[in-house]
Amino acid sequence: MLPVIRPMRDYAVDIWTTREGLPHNSLRKIVQTPDGLIWLATWEGLVRYNGQEFTTFDRGSTPGLLDNAVGSLHVDRQGSLWISDSRGNLSRYDTRGHWQHFPRELPAPGVLVQAMASDAQGRLWLQHEGKGLGHLDPGGRFNFTPPPDDLSVLLTYPGLVVDSIGQVWMGSMDGILLRDGQGVLQRAPASFGLPRAPSWPYLAPDGVLWLVVGNSLYRMRDGKPVLHYSLDAQTFLTSMLIDSKGLIWLGTESDGLMRLGPGGLERMPEGKKLPGGRILSLFEDNEGSIWVGANGGLFRLREALFTSYGISDGLSGDYVRSVLEDSQRRIWIGSAQGLDRMDADGSIHSIDLARGNENVVSVLSLAEGRDGTIWVGTFADGVIGIGRDGRLTRFDQVQQLSSGNVRALVVDANNWLWVGTQGGLLRIRDGKVERPEIHGLPKQELVTALGQHEGQLWVGSTEGVRIVHPDRVERVELSQLGGARTVLGLQSIGKAMWISTDRGLYRYQDGKLGHVGLEQGLPVDAVFQLVPDRLGNVWLSSNRGVLRTDMVSLNEVADGRRSQLDGVERYAEIDGMSNSQANGSSGPGSMLDHRGRYWVVTAGGLSVVDPQHLRQLRERPSPRPMLEQVRVNGQLQDWRNSRVEVPGGARVSISYVGLSYLISDRIRYRTRLVGLDEEWIERGRQRSVEYISLPPGRYTLQVSSMHPGGRWSLQVAELHFTVAPLWWQSPWVWFGAVLALLLLWAGLYRYGVYRYKARSQRLARLVDQRTYDLQLQAESLLAANQEKTRLLDRLREQSEAFQRQARQDALTGLPNRRVFDEALAREFSRHQRSGHPLCLVVLDIDHFKTVNDRFSHSVGDRVLTEVGKLLQQACRDGDLPARLGGEEFALLLDDTTAVEAEQLCSRLQALFHARQDWGGVQGLSVTFSAGLVQAQADDKQATDLYRRADHALYSAKSSGRDVTCVE
Predict the structure, then answer these.
(1) Are 209 and 169 in contact (CB under 8 A)?
(2) Are 226 and 218 in contact (CB under 8 A)?
(3) Which residues are CB-contacts of 606 (< 8 A; sequence separation ≥ 6)?
(4) pTM of the full predicted structure?
(5) Given a cut of 80, is residue 24 above it in pLDDT?
(6) Sheet holding 320-325, edge to edge
(7) Angle in degrees, CA 543, 545, 551, rounded to 5
(8) Which residues does the UniProt record annotate as the domain GGDEF (predicted)?
(9) 100-108 long-range contacts, CB within 8 A, separation 24+
(10) Domain harbouring 698, CATH code
(11) Can 887 be counted among the known catalytic residues?
(12) Cα-Cα-Cα-Cα dihedral sign, residues 602, 604, 610, 616
């Protein structure tokens, strides 16, 4: 079976730099030892990576290196790791975990060893920078022969290979060097016809020798180089890799990463292009990931589960709200920046919906009519129909009847278009917009979802769900089961209608309602859309990524046959999604296309996954478990070569890891302590166990690991240890202790009887005395209680006054800064959960200091008071005006877009301009400057929104004041 070759755009790119724990950002060499560990050569030490964390070995570590600047790495035929440094020293780490150092000895030069290679005789060949070729023999002796006088090696280039017949090939900046059978280092034969350019050799996994010369690749065939490919670029190749699929990966000096395959040369797309600079090394690990060592850090390319599309791929915007596949198998993509169409060949075309110089049309919902018309629901432009001929039909009356915000569309059997809007449910029939006169339909509610089930129309809104029958409207009460209120999606599957809400999933079937929510094991509260695929999977979109489970489990929980939903997998950016925040309250927010692929809209683009690929990933080998550290009472132990002896009563701590680099943070573990318990104990993602005061005996700890949804590894990591008995655990000590306890018990019993009689007599006397004292105290407490009541009344009055002062600005009567900060944090969290728009306006009275200086501070205070009253009058009930301090005010506008907020600011400025007697001073004019922002996906917390608003205010002031700057 031929391997599946996915385009480079489908690879997810992971990046590590010094911020993630690397000691240096320049990676000269990457290798993997037989135990599965990844090793990196840097200028600041040797780095080991286990998929979870980096461990650095340098001169200050234990064990330590002879020098921090690592030149190269090499894994020999026995699996040992060799490390070279900038002073000509070598170190070896063998398969048993032992370290051995080889300090440089003459005649070897004390310079950087750029590359290493081993031959069949056990010799380790060394490329000395600017000096030539040497080797370390199996006995540990350095050998070096200077190159001939007529051969300059001052400009060697890292690259050393021993071919199948024992010849040693070496790179340099002006051509390939070769050590022939007589041991003489010379230039490659002139008959090769190779140009003078930076050159180096590469030995492919199949044993074929390649020569890289400048920007060209040559393959050795019958002892001569044959040109394979030349790059059309003004750069030269710096690294090469032929992966397990036969694809050629190429790193360059200044032109990034490329791949040469059956389709020709392929480059990384713009959105995933690696930083500029030299690519020093390329490596494929045993799971098929491609590792890239560059001057700017460590990069890994792995075949991700999801593929994502965004602005860099041709979409009009990254904030995608709806996706639809039409009957012609074209994908329609609606976003906050417009509408796009992806044709069958993958090309993306923007659809112009705007009128002339009109602003961009924000698309919220999509549907296809039975005649092939594509219906587009917008945020503020009503409904637009796109005919098969491309002509647009606009229904502006939708905007007039409902204030726009068309979040849901559905076409019924009569080809009538039902329109869910901010102002209830509308219908377009025979080219006319109408509001159906059916009692019980939502009229002043935000309709968020529409669906059809068994010939009936289902309407979801912020107030629940309704079923439209021919003669009546039935309300399905969700709140009684789980407390749901807002319906976010509707999906008809067989005889059931699945309802996605802000409190999980509901199933309506045969008149009965079932619930699958947080309490039943769903890892999130709000679910946007449920989509089943053809393999039994069910995909759920949410604010916290895409969830995957199976339909059988969902039905069992909804039926009550099962209490918990187990094994739900969550996918996010690490799985290739452009953004883990999916979008809801618009639709369709996700879908299954004709090929069985699942599409989902997100705040960072459009993502798609082929469930067949999921099956392939789940069939990958289980991660190999490996012990990392063993500590006894905090002290490191050498566990590799002998059984660990543990003193009685000691604390034994063992850490372990599953060696996989594909989503390694999701690996699950289980342990079994043979000798104490024969059952496996699942540890989840926990990577360590600890045992305290184990009974004496011989134990074996076994560790197994697996990928989520995979199988437990058959290979286990084992630790053998023995716990010695404590002195008091011997049989004679136990016998003596039992006898002493019996004698002590008898003596204590006799003494206790004597003490009991004496205590009874003393207590009788105390009872009489205490009874008299308590009577006196009761009278005193009654008087004190009356005084306390009066004092509490006065304190309550003072407390209420203090609370008002703490939350209200004393001058203007507006909420103060404290109340504003609480409201901003609360409304920002609500925005993140629901996706409702949120705007913030920060305004400042222009030249207010001049008012104080010219007319006195009492006039200035009256001006501020009048500003506060004007803001209260101009705002809606749900808006929050506040005084932040001095002449600075703020308006927190919930469920308000930037356009609506800007209109409010314009009205405020008109009110300010209309008044000419501010502070009671005739002819005194007052203006303000304002900064306006709308919450975006990039805002991670409320302070980000305030910081952008403050920056916009500064821009307004810099623009001459008396303006509103929108950012």
Answers:
(1) yes
(2) yes
(3) 308, 309, 310, 315, 320, 323, 333, 578, 599, 600
(4) 0.69
(5) yes
(6) 320-325, 331-335, 338-342, 348-351
(7) 105
(8) 836-967
(9) 101/65, 101/66, 102/136, 102/140, 102/142, 103/66, 104/142, 105/141, 105/142, 106/142, 107/142, 107/143, 107/144, 108/134, 108/142, 108/143, 108/144
(10) 2.60.40.10
(11) yes
(12) negative
% of the chain exceeding 70 in pLDDT: 98
Return the higher-pLDDT residue of 323 and 254.
Answer: 323
For the chain, what is the largest distance between any 2 Cα atoms, rounded to a whole number of angstroms?
Answer: 122
**How do beta strands 668-674 and 697-706 pair?**
antiparallel
**Whether residue 674 sits in one domain with residue 609:** no
- What does the DSSP 8-state code read for residue 666? G
Backbone angles phi, psi at 558, to 5 degrees: -65, -35
Cα 73 to chain centroid, rounded: 32
User: What number of CA atoms fall less than 13 Å from residue 206's CA on the CB side?
Assistant: 10
Q: Of 705, 729, 753, which residue is a domain's last?
A: 729
Query: What are the pLDDT digits (tens) for 86-99?
Result: 999 999 999 988 99
Neighbouring residues of 48: CB distance < 8 A, sequence distance ≥ 6 = 37, 38, 39, 40, 54, 55, 56, 57
The reply to whether 96 and 185 lie within a common domain is yes
DSSP state of 728: G
302 domain-assigned: no
* Cα 966 to Cα 575, 932, 953, distances in angstroms: 35, 5, 9
Q: Is the pLDDT of residue 276 over 90?
A: no
Please report which confidence band the pLDDT of residue 117 belongs to, taking 50, 70 and 90 as the band edges: very high
**Structural domain includes residue 331:** yes
Distance CA 854, CA 839 (A): 35
Quote the distance between the C-alpha of residue 82 and its chain's center.
36
Nearest to 581 by CA among 787, 798, 247, 319: 319
Q: Sheet containing 124-128: which strands, arranged edge to edge?
A: 113-118, 124-128, 132-136, 142-144
Same domain? For 666 and 650 the reply is: yes
Asked whether residue 614 falls in the same domain as residue 630, the answer is no
Residues 25, 277 contacting (CB under 8 angstroms): no
Helices 817-834 and 942-958 cross at an angle (nearest 10°) of 110
Going by the DSSP 8-state scheme, the letter that residue 62 receives in this structure is: S
And the tokens for 891? 């308006």
Record the tokens describing residue 192, joined without a space: 């090769």
Half-sphere exposure of 635 (CA within 13 A, CB side): 9
How are strands ordered across the β-sheet holding 38-42?
29-32, 38-42, 45-49, 54-57
As for how many domains the chain has, the answer is 4
- Looking at the fold, whether 456 and 583 belong to one and the same domain comes out as yes
CB-facing half-sphere around the CA of 444: CA atoms within 13 A: 0
* 642 shares a domain with 561: no
Which distant-in-sequence residues (6+ apart) come within 8 Å of 265 by Cβ?
229, 231, 258, 259
Q: DSSP readout, 250-288?
A: EEESSS-EEEEETTEEEE--GGGPPPSS-EEEEEE-TTS
Q: Which residue has the tokens 């877009």?
A: 897
* φ, ψ dihedrals at 429, nearest 5°: -130, 125
Whole-number Å distance between alpha carbons of 63 and 552: 53
Range of weakest confidence among 439-443, 484-488, 728-732: 728-732
Give the integer Cα–Cα distance in Å for 546 and 901: 33
SS3 122: coil
| Alpha helix stretches (DSSP H) within 808-875 | 817-834, 848-855, 857-874
Question: Residue 813 pLDDT more than 90?
Answer: no
Residue 812 falls within a domain, yes or no? no
Of 602, 618, 634, which closes a domain? 618
What's the CATH number where 840 sits?
Answer: 3.30.70.270
Catalytic option among 887, 888, 900, 967: 887
Which pLDDT belongs to residue 802?
65
- Please state, in angstroms and as integers, the Cα–Cα distance from residue 850 to each residue in 259, 302, 761, 884, following that order: 67, 63, 88, 20
Q: Six-digit token pair at 654?
A: 């063992």
Co-location of 575 and 654 in the same domain: no
Parent domain of 130? 21-237
CATH of residue 151: 2.130.10.10
* Residue 299 located in a structural domain: no
Q: Are residues 514 and 635 in the same domain?
A: no
